[in-house]
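Job type: complex structure
Entries:
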Amino acid sequence: MSAVMVDIRGVHKSFGATEVLRGIDLQVRAGEVTVIVGPSGSGKSTLLRAVNHLEKVDRGWIGVDGELIGYRRAGGKLYELKEKEILRQRTRIGFVFQNFNLFPHLTVAENLVEAPVSALRRPRREAVATARELLARVGLAGKADAYPRQLSGGQQQRVAIARALALEPKVLLFDEPTSALDPELVGEVLDVIKDLARGGTTMIVVTHEIGFAREVADTVVFLDGGVVVEQGPPAAVLDTPRHERTRAFLSKVL
Amino acid sequence: MKAPAAAPPGAASPGSGPGTPPLPDDPASLTVVPARHPARWAAAAAVAVLLVQFAHGLATNPVWEWDVFGAYVFSETIVRAVWVTLQLTAYATVLGFLLGTVLAFMRLSGSPVLRTVAWGYVWIFRSIPMIVQLVFWFNLSALYERLGVGIPFGPVLWSVESNDLIGTIGAAVIGLTLHQAAYAAEIVRGGVLSVDQGQREAAAALGLPRLRQIRRIVLPQAMRAILPTAGNEIVGLLKGTSVVYVMSIGELFYQTQVIYGRNGRVIPLLLVATVWYVVLTSLLSVAQYYVERRFARGADRTPPPTPLGRARAFLRGLPAATTRGGPPARAAEPPGDRR
């Protein structure tokens, strides 16, 4: 069995009086695909955003590849890191947003080159070459000089995936990558993610696409009310769920 | 038998009369006549008459004294004064917006200290009329004869005469800059707030350094909202520099006053100042158009043509209407293209 890449232990998070995450434990092994499903408001997105410290946790900790994210441990306490350190850690964790969040004033190629050059200090020439390879890989070789708004939603999300890959992250996080897309464009984005899965990229995917989860996931996690209700191989969780809440959710989305 | 068959004119609604077909057999045989706008023609004629009257007055009323205007408009004194006006505007714009941008980000920062300082700055400098502030700076040496660096409340390590450090022009630039920065801070803050939160988040998720997030991602997009208001401010500043005449600085308005104070030719010299202000403002407006266009990159799928490009297309006899919407433009867009 491969090593644990993402290690989530006892994570709690509240927004005001609402406790969104209530003690999450989850381990993601290197090279595996974990799909998180659950009703809206269950804390899926918050958990994902906590993995690269876009959300701070109130209790518990998250480790990626053996490194504590966002905090430094000294004695019995966790001290929040300086922003510079957190930014460095984020370059090892790719994040794909529901709304793509491409930089609209930069061309597709510039979107891909920006982070490697300014965050990792790669030579520009090298970054441009990598960008072209990545665009070809997501099927957009001809779009390097287009602006994001000249592309369809599906194309934009594929650019966003390529942009995340440009940093060669250890793990890729997807926050509902197809929820903002028209139905006929969902497939092209899922195909890219499937391709990455076959290539052995470690991924955590929050999605409502149950069919995709069944096909690609090594582990499906069902989250509800800020806790992991059940997890296991897709066949177990999706076809023979043990919990009433999982059954109720699946009966609505399938 | 004839009378009942002939319906009174206008009584028969189309298609109701027996024998009269509701629609013509051949639609192509009809000509379409667009709506006429006689009132527009009348208004245009009235405006034209007023314009001609005004131009006639300009040409014939001897009080304008065009020969005096001609003698002064490019005179060395005036040209040098225009140069001073331009310098004051340029310095105050650049320094004012630099300071204003810093203040805007202080105001948006997480630090309560920085937020309060920025808020206090904007509060105080928006509260003091510019002319009052300028006179204050002009009289700085009365308030602090020497300026120095040292330990607070302790010994002074190095100092100079206030008037040596800050000349009259320096005082004017400082006054204009501090005033401008307060307004610029709010303009820049408004622009930054208009940028989608997800942009900053994406930049942070990619690990871009803090300063790079601001300079490369946030500010260029904020410029779209900043530029129209900033253009207003700069034009206002250009004309506002005329206020520094109270400090006897040889800018355009001051020099004009000096000259007409000497020779009594008030109207033609005010005309000299007016023409220069209009020309400079027009140049700024043209510059603003092109700067805005540059920062609109990526905002539209097909950028609109420049006025020059449109003129060229028009001269070539191509339909310039492609930029105005209407059927030709629709047809030019690829069908099924979406955002």
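Summary: The CA atoms of residues 43 and 226 of chain A lie 5 Å apart. The mean pLDDT of chain A is 94.
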